[in-house]
Amino acid sequence: MITQDQWNFLEALHEEGERFDREAPAGATTRRNITFQTGQFLYQLVKSSAARRIVEVGTSNGCSTLWLALAARTNQGHVTTIDISAQAQEAALGNLDALGLGPMATLVCQDAGEWLAAQESSPVDFLFLDADRGHYPAYWPHISRMLRPGGLVVMDNALSHESECRPFVEMVRATPGWFFATYPVGKGQFVILKDE
């Protein structure tokens, strides 16, 4: 259960991220956090599916990681979040610790493609994609190998960056054994079920 203090923290973090991105000079690195509505959606999906092994590609400052970790705590699960930016992950760890969620997450500072390729086939329950969309097609063979039957993949920005996401979406559609749909939540969530 999310407490009022946690809810307030999540709202404040979202608002701060929106303000930071609006005021960032041209060409500066922005946070590009998920929307607040997307965070709620992820929390509901993870908690209701009883997902325990959760992988996130794209940590940023941990906005989405917090929602995932809050749901994982209920399920006695754990989040592994991957990002190439050590600075972003340092900020994410600070936010996780602020809510007492540090033990719920492992932060991996590494290229996501390399990390995914190095994993053995394992029962990942839930995987969230929110990084460089051009790399997703290369990730797909590893994701499809790692995800357990009945597991979920959620890709952010399916509507806001539809053309960038299209190669990945088409690859998923061409793979037998997967059920998928796009939901108009936040910037668009492409939800993929391993339907085996």
TrEMBL record:
List the signal peptide residues.
Answer: none
Pfam families cross-referenced by the UniProt entry:
Methyltransf_3 (PF01596)
Gene3D superfamilies, alphabetically?
A: Vaccinia Virus protein VP39
Its BP terms in the Gene Ontology are:
methylation
Q: Which domain of life is it from?
A: Bacteria
InterPro entries in alphabetical order: SAM-dependent_MTases_sf, SAM_O-MeTrfase
Q: Which GO terms describe its molecular function?
A: O-methyltransferase activity
Keywords from UniProt, A to Z, are: Methyltransferase, S-adenosyl-L-methionine, Transferase
Q: Which PANTHER family would you find in this protein's record?
A: PUTATIVE (AFU_ORTHOLOGUE AFUA_6G01830)-RELATED
By what name is this protein known?
O-methyltransferase
